[in-house]
């Protein structure tokens, strides 16, 4: 990014398995922006705590893990399991953990890697806490049953075999914890565009998201590579 220019920051928040990750990655690709899955930070902290045989509700253990996080921790294969998701949701309710991870997220948004002109961040509190200054905010959601169905399929495709009911219960518990916590609870920013993907395929969600970004952010091109249609 050329010096002095303000980066284009797109915030995508929402509950588990609403389609944020796929959408965020595709918006970033279409517009030539960097992408950060902020859930992977909390998952990496959760995984470290579990591997050390510690309790994810133990604030001292979780804060120490968050302070020793490296970029390599964000790409570890074990991150996507449901046990790790539960641990992530527990460590993420600890205010000091959130504070320890804030600077990394803000730095990524304001100084995107590889000189890119901006970044898309997905998570729970990007539009409300991490980057309230984002030029475009989307709150991506879907019915609990539809989200559980998607997560169940994703887990089965990876060889995990929980029942649909178990996935649904775990997701309801995690959503309730994420929304009820005092530190940066899951909620839509007032200026976010709410996108319900329950009956939408990925391409229609992408079209709507790109329309929101184009109407709210100053992009100096209309369609860099024709990839966003
Ligand atoms: O992929 P999925 O939506 O299931 O979860 P994730 O985005 O990987 O996030 C895992 C957990 O991290 C969530 O349940 C939240 O508790 C927490 N998280 C958070 O608190 N704030 C964020 N910005 C991102 C994730």
From TrEMBL:
An MF annotation (GO) of this entry: ATP binding
Domain Cytidylate kinase residues, every copy: 10-208
Keywords: ATP-binding, Cytoplasm, Kinase, Nucleotide-binding, Transferase
An individual GO BP term: pyrimidine nucleotide metabolic process
Protein's name according to its UniProt entry: Cytidylate kinase
Location(s), subcellular: Cytoplasm
UniProt: ATP binding residues: 14-22
Species for this entry: Limimonas halophila
Membership in a protein family: Belongs to the cytidylate kinase family. Type 1 subfamily.
Protein's UniProt keywords contain Metal-binding: no
Lineage: Bacteria, Pseudomonadati, Pseudomonadota, Alphaproteobacteria, Rhodospirillales
Catalytic reaction annotation: dCMP + ATP = dCDP + ADP; CMP + ATP = CDP + ADP
Cellular component GO terms, alphabetical: cytoplasm
Predominant location category: cytoplasm
Enzyme Commission designation: 2.7.4.25
């Amino acid at each position: 990014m050329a010096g002095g220019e303000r980066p284009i920051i797109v915030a995508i928040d929402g509950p588990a398995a609403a389609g944020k990750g796929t959408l965020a990655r595709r918006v970033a690709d279409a517009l030539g922006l960097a992408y950060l899955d902020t859930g992977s930070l909390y998952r990496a902290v959760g995984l470290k705590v579990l591997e050390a045989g510690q309790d994810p509700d133990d604030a001292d253990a979780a804060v120490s893990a968050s302070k020793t996080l490296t970029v390599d921790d964000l790409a570890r294969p074990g991150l996507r399991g449901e046990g790790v998701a539960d641990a992530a949701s527990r460590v993420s309710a600890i205010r000091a953990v959130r504070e320890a991870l804030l600077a990394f997220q803000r730095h990524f948004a304001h100084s995107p890697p590889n000189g890119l002109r901006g970044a898309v961040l997905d998570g729970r509190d990007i539009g409300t806490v991490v980057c309230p200054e984002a030029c475009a905010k989307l709150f991506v959601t879907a019915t609990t049953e539809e989200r559980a169905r998607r997560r169940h399929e994703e887990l089965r495709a990876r060889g995990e075999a929980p029942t649909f009911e178990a996935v649904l219960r775990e997701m309801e518990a995690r959503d309730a914890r994420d929304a009820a916590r005092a530190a940066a609870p899951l909620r839509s920013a007032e200026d976010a565009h709410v996108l319900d993907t329950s009956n939408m395929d990925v391409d229609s969600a992408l079209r709507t998201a790109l329309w929101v970004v184009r109407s709210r952010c100053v992009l100096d091109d209309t369609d860099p590579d024709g990839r966003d249609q």
